UniProtKB/TrEMBL annotation:
GO terms for molecular function: DNA binding; DNA-binding transcription factor activity. Keywords: DNA-binding, Transcription, Transcription regulation. It comes from Croceibacterium soli. This is MarR family transcriptional regulator. Residues 23-161, 182-314 form the HTH marR-type domain. One of its GO terms (biological process) is response to stress. Pfam families: MarR. It comes from the Bacteria. InterPro entries: HTH_MarR-typ, MarR/SlyA-like, Tscrpt_reg_MarR-type_CS, WH-like_DNA-bd_sf, WH_DNA-bd_sf. The keyword Ubl conjugation does not apply. Residues 11-25 have a biased composition (Low complexity). Residues 1-25 are annotated as: Disordered.
Amino acid sequence: MPEGDADPNQPSASPGLPAGPGDAALMEPFLHKPGFLLARVDQISTALFAGAPGGTTLRQAEFLMLVGALGPMPQIRLANASGMDTSTTAYVVANLESRGLVERAPCPDDRRRSQVSLTRAGGNLLREVTPRYAELQQQLGAPLAEADRGRLRTMLHTLGADARGPGPIWTPACDPAGGVLDKALSFLARRALQVFQAQFVADATHLNLTLRQFSLLFLLSQRETLTQVAFARLFGLDPSTCGVIMRSLAGRGLIGSASSHEDRRERVFTITPAGRQALAEVHPLAHRSEMAVLRGFAPAEQAILIRQLQAVVKTHSPALRFPGAIAAL
């Protein structure tokens, strides 16, 4: 039976796995977590933007639009305007430079710094990418009424611009009424996601876990065993990303693996005692980090944020190759 047609009240149909909570029931708690929903919106944005002119990625498009709107700028200012850490900014700029879309030169007022500017080719591509980016924002916001879209943008902007957390600095560089990124749902969702991820990592520093690693430990504590493909289908990630998460935890002894009885080429993963101990320690920290990010929102506002993100995820998840078990939406 195709995953989307599965009975949410039945155990997982993945072959070779022991019975456990039904997929939809197991994933239901995640559907009320802003961090999970924002990560899913980011996946959706990437999928919807695929095939953009010149094979441009979302981050590349945003860099081109920032430099096009604000003019040549120091690379560090571009990092702040895009909410990126300096190493990621350098990587994206180097990629654009290798394609002849931007160029770097010493800053006139500080030659130790690089100034980034558009080339003619970059300007030409920008004219093609800009309407595609605007179309993406319309697609993302389509499930919401106009007033709700505005409210969601405002809440995400508030989360992303909060400088009290440990995430990369974001200095909104344009007028919110007509700025490049200030009102783009795809960017604002990713920026808010950065804030949730950074806060979690900061609160759980001693455990050295990411949100996705924590999620896998939780799922294995409930399902007992998962294969890489089963994790992908359940959680809604591509199998290669799932493989990275699983290998990292296995390398630290937090999960174990053995060959599947049905297919010796496939590995079956289980949580270890050390993994259960780590999960017990990190679980309250995950809640604390979420509350730290949402500290400026009343409970009613938090509920509105979650409902609006759920509406976007429910509408657009079919665009993903691995939409996950989100039937509860």
